[in-house]
Write a structure and sequence with these properties.
The chain is an alpha+beta fold. Helix content is about 25%, strand content about 25%. Strand 5 and strand 6 form a beta hairpin.
């Protein structure tokens, strides 16, 4: 089983970061990064692990457990492209029983908010399955791009057939030229306290 040090190095190289750049992102010295990668420092505190995963743009599970056959959630950030755009993130297929009202065929991606990011309808520890689409299929939650960044909105058609976009707890607003549909939320799981 691969240890944490080599995984840190592998993920750093995949992210095309040198030790100094990663150190700046995490808030440690580049010597500390060297010690982590070599295994000279074997225990890393939780806060530093979370910062390291965010700096490497990977889920904490990939950092701690290494490559897994389970799909890892993509990190959703307000600024930037949809998490599956421009990368090599593979999609998953959800069984039809999990999305009976959606009538969705095709791949979707597991998504969770990146550390420090907030989204309407999607809490900090929630998980969403989003199917990429630029076409309105049916009323529901969509990931959209606005002039201000990415957002989750309830999208519906009004009586005239025009699309409306509703933030959580807000009033629907009409379509604007800088809005673009990126994906439809086909399933949503909320973390509940134990």
């Amino acid at each position: 089983m691969e240890t944490l040090g080599p995984r840190i190095k592998q993920l750093r190289l995949e992210a095309k970061l040198n030790k100094a750049a990663l150190a700046r992102r995490v808030g440690v010295s580049d010597v500390t990064i060297s010690y982590w990668e070599s295994g000279a420092i074997k225990q890393i505190g939780h806060e530093r692990l979370v910062a390291l995963a965010a700096a490497l743009d990977c889920p904490l599970s990939a950092l701690l457990e290494g490559e897994s056959r389970r799909p890892s959630p993509l990190l959703l950030k307000r600024q930037g492209p949809a998490p599956w755009e421009g990368g090599e993130a593979g999609g998953i297929e959800l069984p039809m029983e999990m999305t009976p009202e959606q009538r969705w065929d095709g791949d979707c991606h597991l998504v969770t908010p990146a550390p420090g990011e907030t989204f309407d309808y999607l809490g900090r520890d929630d998980l969403a399955a989003i199917a990429p689409t630029e076409v309105f299929r049916q009323a529901g939650l969509y990931l959209i791009e606005t002039g201000e960044g990415l957002a989750l909105r309830r999208v519906e058609q009004d009586a005239r057939g025009e699309l409306t976009f509703q933030p959580q707890g807000g009033r629907p607003t009409p379509y604007a030229p800088d809005y673009r549909l990126l994906g439809k939320v086909v399933a949503l799981w909320r973390r509940e306290p134990l």
